[in-house]
Amino acid sequence: AIDHLDWDDLKLFLIVVRCKSVTGAARELKVSHSTVSRRLARLEYTVGGALVERTKDGLLLTPAGLVTMRRAEEIENGVNALRSDVSNRDEICGTVRLATMEGIATLYLSERLVELSSRYPDLDLELVTSPQTVRVARREADLFLSFFKPHGTSLDSQLIGRFKTGLFASQAYLERNGVPSQAADLSEHRFVGYIEELIQLESVLWLEELVPTPKIAFSSN
């Protein structure tokens, strides 16, 4: 029955048509003449009629054979297109918009973009920096690299790394103000802090846990 049509038999049929003989197809496929004849007969049984007529000048397509050839070529073209589409998925190319925070872009991504461009010359990367959450679901960006997991059930989120926070000071500052030896000494020092209402990442707002009333020299987002 046609429901049990075998694509391999259709491919063999196309080779028979293109070689214009069973012998030529057998030679092309590196199988015996009887194997090609048997599989051709099986295909004819499946479609319910003769596909070729054997004459002294070679094989001639019957009306059913002509229809089968055309449909088989359509399937062949579709399979080849699918194979091409799937293989092209492995190629890194096209335009990708990456959104992230300014700190990540400046301190982490900037030095790596040159290498990325060299490895994937057909990749057109658009880098967008924003202190707010970028709505990937609304196509504001293709990727969003952030310190926190964005909200949205339709988003595919992956943890790609972790970061640590700490206290840092310039050598000049420490020479002027001394190096704190214990947590209590920090109350005598000045800090660069965050503008709290503009910060979405609560994990960076830890200074007051260490210093109840820190002296803030200036704040930023």
- Which strands sit side by side, in order, in the main sheet? 4-3-5
Helix-strand makeup class: alpha/beta
Average pLDDT number: 84
Structural domain tally? 3
Instruction: Identify the CATH homologous superfamily of the largest domain.
Output: Winged helix-like DNA-binding domain superfamily/Winged helix DNA-binding domain
Pfam families: HTH_1, LysR_substrate
GO molecular function, one term: sequence-specific DNA binding
Keywords: DNA-binding, Transcription, Transcription regulation
Protein name: LysR family transcriptional regulator
Task: Describe the fold and architecture.
The chain is α/β, with parallel strands linked by helices and 221 residues long. It folds into three domains: 2-88, Arc Repressor Mutant, subunit A, CATH 1.10.10; 94-145, 3-Layer(aba) Sandwich (D-Maltodextrin-Binding Protein, domain 2); 171-220, no CATH class. 41% of the residues lie in helices and 16% in strands. It has helices at 7-19, 22-29, 33-47, 63-88, 102-119, 171-177, 207-210; strands at 52-55, 58-61, 94-100, 123-129, 143-145, 190-194, 215-220. The protein has a three-stranded parallel sheet with strand order 4-3-5, with helices on one face. Strands 1-2 form a two-stranded antiparallel ribbon. It has a two-stranded parallel sheet with strand order 6-7. Keywords: DNA-binding, Transcription, Transcription regulation.
